[in-house]
Amino acid sequence: MQASSSPLELSTTLPAILARHGHDGTRLMQILRETQEAEGWLSPAVLTEIARAVGRPRAEVEGTAAFYSFFHTRPRGKYCVLWSDNITDRMLGNRELMQALCAKLWLEPGRLSEDGLVSVNTTSCTGMCDQGPAVLVNYRAITRMTMDRVDAMAELIRNQVPLADWPAEWFAVEDNIRRKDALLDHGLAPGEALAAAMARGAAAFIDEIKASGLRGRGGAGFSTGLKWAMCRDAPGDAHYVVCNADEGEPGTFKDRVLLTSYADLVFEGMTLAGYAIGASKGLLYLRGEYRYMKDALEAVLARRRADRLLGAKILDSDFAFDIEIHFGAGAYICGEESALIESLEGKPGRPRIRPPFPVTSGYLGQPTVVNNVETLAAACLVASHGGAWYAKLGTAKSAGTKLLSVSGDVERPGIYEYPYGVSVAQVLQDCGVTNCIQAVQVSGPSGVCIGQDELDRRICFEDIPTAGAFMVFDCTRDMFEVAHNFAHFFAHESCGFCTPCRVGTQIVARLMDKLAAGQGSPYDINEMFNMHRLMQGASHCGLGNTACNPMIDTLTKFKPAYERRLKSLDFVPGFDLDAALSQARQMTGRDDADAHLAGAD
Amino acid sequence: MSEQNSFLLDGEEIPFTPGQTVIQAAKAAGKFIPHLCWHPDFAPHGSCKLCTVKVNGRFGSACTMEAAAGMNVDNRTPELDDKRRTLLQLLFVEGNHFCPSCEKSGNCLLQATAYELGMMSPHFDHFFPDRPVDASHPDMLLDFNRCIMCALCVQASREVDGKNVFAMGGRGMRGRRVIINSESGRLADTDFAATDRAASVCPVGVILKKRVGFAVPIGQRKYDIAPASIAEATK
Q: Are strands A135-137 and A140-142 parallel, antiparallel or unpaired?
């Protein structure tokens, strides 16, 4: 791999990539990704050349490259195998499979093999929870790993078979749509919603969106109509539409399905937003894990351009709008809208200081609407059927339907669409629960964990708002292990900008490790509550504010899972003092009672 | 005092001019809000969170929040100072801070703030990160063991010196760091100079001038003479 960074090689691939992106530093993420795809990794010399070409300080370019998990500033190996490590993958046995793969390849997780051929490691949830255990091989998604596939994969890697020649069925990603409602049964032809909105006019269309009661589907639930109106009214040289397809919340995969089988609806929603706010450019920020969708999505865009649904003179009007796809590179924080915009501008995904909000100062400092994939798709329904029709779906404060990504201990994991207001119990009944239910984690680690006695609670903004994740745990599951997994997820994904989240998430992960090792005490649990109180108020963004939720929820509702791990009811140090003396005993050749701490009492 | 342009800080009326942040108005009035990453000469960074205050019952950063008429701001309450002590402890265990052997001792805002707030111990287990020292530059030394990620050097180099010697990069506690603007990663291979603003802006002991470490003896230094609450409110 090192040879590929020689000046000779640089002179062939890199200039073409840089030229394709117009030497534009705001396109740094795409330049880095494509360069890495060509070169294998991002060597110091490559970063220097990219910085020079885009006219940015080298330290900034390196700063961006070093921020994202999927960018490699060290040689990576010809095969990079990353196991999705969401709790649902673990429940399906990913750890055992990864250990088996490592054993067959004679390597340790996280370490490049001696011959530089392969590395095996974990990564945050890749959005395949309904068909796990999942892996990414050189950032291509593979689903349904089994021990047989591990055996075969080790052979393919050892024989250096190109990824293109691996069994095609490994790369199959199923939609698993189990229940359709208004959105998934939309029945709209491409362009139909757009024509209806343009017949109304932009201002009247925004009024329809307001009247529909449509709220953001990313979980926060801000009024879509209000957001669009504020953006439209904000002064700027240009307005932008950004579709947030980062979908990093573990357990969420609805956007994957929408973009796979409903891409027209999503792109039409973006076009609608562009028409409403007066934008001519839309950006789809797609998480790096979904890189495999690129060709199919580009084909849909090309078809829509040919059909005059994108480009200049849309539907023969003066409205011009086009959409471009940007890929993320493995950073959960980019799901936060201002971090996402930073990433679109080629920077590390660090949430901005707010205000100003994106609607007045977003992408390139211009008024920008950032909407979830599902919100934009739903806007098509409002455009074609009207606000009053849409407002009748769902509940009073939660109009419309919601896609749930169901995974975990159910018979039929997949996508379930319901009108807002559906009870958790109803969802559980529909997705087939055979064993007794212990808990459901709604809206992922940053959401809420509900227990058996809360199954009558409802999915809606009045009760449990959600971005879509719905992970089910039966009575055999250890809820401590669920929280333990989430604690490490947040520690891994904290951007590191603010003190409470950067260090706090690590402290919490370490406390959970201590409990897991059987060294815990009530003192440690108390510490967890203290960190929660600090991080909830003082953190810079939602990640830090919610990072302790899984611990606090499970400590409150599933306390025995913690208590059975406590060593004593008093303070227990994180290390074993007597064991620490073993080296001294070895050196002095003593092992009598007086050489042990207990014996010295 | 005009009622329209004032707010309450711990019950005391503080005047402000429109556009001022809470911390700017407080400082102008000679009031101390603990802070580390904020510097009066630079745009707020908002990362250390030491200046967390409670405005009308909600937490916020005094360095980024604009002052507004009639705000009721809690600052030096036991609740807030307790949070600040924890934040300081997090910063101390995140890096490698050994005050007795640090030549910034007495001039260090982290140390002074810890004294100010009565931080008696690090409380948490240390992480002992492996952070390199860069002594390559003829006149300057970089000891990243003490970095608190305030990014003041980044701002000073970019905005005052026009050089971009530093940038923040990486992710999370184990990744986030100051990146040096050279392919080798060494300070000697940049255009950094001891006369740069960035050379004197570090609030802790990361960016140090060589050969003058103890020109002012310990005991006669900035925060030896006056504690942070006085030195920072009046400078």
A: antiparallel
The residue type found at B100 is P
Partner-chain contact B165 A502, CB within 8 Å: no
A385 token code pair: 């059927």
- Reduced to 3 states (helix: H, G, I; strand: E, B; else coil), residue A518 is coil
What letter does residue A263 receive in the DSSP assignment?
H
From residue A111, give the alpha-carbon distance in Å to each of A95, A104, A140, A141, A526. Answer: 16, 14, 20, 21, 36
pLDDT tens for A496-539 read 999 999 999 999 999 999 999 988 889 999 999 999 999 999 99
Contact A496 B175 (CB under 8 A): yes
Tell me which chain B residues have a C-beta less than 8 angstroms from the C-beta of A503. 90-91, 93-94, 173
| Nearest residue of chain A to residue B85 (CA atoms) | A534
Provide the pLDDT for residue A583: 86
Q: What is the distance in angstroms between the CA of the first residue and the CA of the last residue of chain A?
A: 59
Q: How far apart, in whole angstroms, are the C-alpha atoms of residue B72 and residue B67? A: 10
Complex confidence, ipTM? 0.97
**Contact between B167 and A492 using a beta-carbon 8 Å cutoff:** no
Determine the Cα–Cα distance for residues A438 and A449; give it in Å rounded to an integer. 10
> What's the gap in Å between the CA of B222 and the closest CA on chain A?
25
At residue A492, the 3 state secondary structure works out as helix
Paired with A281 in beta bridges are A240, A322
Distances (CA, A) of A199 to A188, A195, A313, A377, B196: 16, 6, 15, 19, 61
Q: Phi/psi at A165 (nearest 5 deg)?
A: -100, 5
Q: Quick check: B86 and A534 in contact, CB under 8 A?
A: yes
- Tell me: pLDDT of A9 over 60: no
Cβ contact (<8 Å) for B52 and A537?
Answer: yes
Q: Is the peptide bond before A133 cis (omega within 30 degrees of 0)?
A: yes
Domains of chain B with bracketed CATH: 6-76 (3.10.20.740), 98-234 (3.30.70.20)
Provide the residue count of chain B: 235
Q: Which of residues 78-117 of B touch A (CB under 8 A)?
A: 83, 86-87, 90-91, 93-94
**pLDDT at position A4, please?**
42
What pairs with residue B7 in β-bridges?
B14
d(CA A423, CA A593): 62
CA–CA gap between residue B133 and residue B135 (Å, rounded):
6
Which of A502, A511, A540, A577 should one mutate to test binding to chain B, selecting the residue with the greatest count of B CBs within 10 A? A502
